[in-house]
Design brief:
single chain; alpha+beta; five-stranded antiparallel β-sheet; two-stranded antiparallel ribbon; 2 helices; 35% strand; Surface layer protein A domain-containing protein
Length: 125
């Protein structure tokens, strides 16, 4: 008989999980890239929790992109040459482009807004 893990089952019903299939920039809610001195979240195969899917207007691209909101705050980062493993702290309001990661498990999230709504919200700021 397989062992059940109630906590894992609860998390699968509450969160979506992604993997970083390439080195990935982290964004703020205003669509700007977080400044980690050029570091990005490094490509890795672990599964990471996300809890929202939404469009955010990216001013530098002049368009809205679909983003996942990260639950975790610390991630392995691209190497700066100062140590073998670097970590960056992205804070509690950090996003990654859905196109830059791969959905692998958990709740199938639906966007909280549309691309047009994200554009209008950005213009009001």
């Amino acid at each position: 008989m397989p062992l059940r893990d109630p906590q894992r089952e609860e998390n699968l019903n509450k969160y979506a999980y992604i993997t970083f299939s390439k080195d990935t920039n982290v964004y703020n809610a205003d669509g700007t890239i977080q400044n980690h001195n050029g570091q990005k979240i490094v490509k890795q195969m672990g599964q990471f929790k996300v809890d929202k899917l939404m469009y955010i207007w990216v001013p530098s691209e002049k368009k809205a992109n679909l983003f996942y909101h990260l639950v975790g705050t610390k991630f392995y980062a691209t190497n700066t040459g100062t140590s073998f493993f670097d970590k960056i702290d992205v804070g509690h309001d950090a996003y990654v482009k859905a196109d830059d990661v791969k959905f692998v498990n958990g709740v199938q999230l639906t966007p909280l807004n549309t691309a047009a709504e994200a554009q209008v919200a950005a213009q009001k700021k």
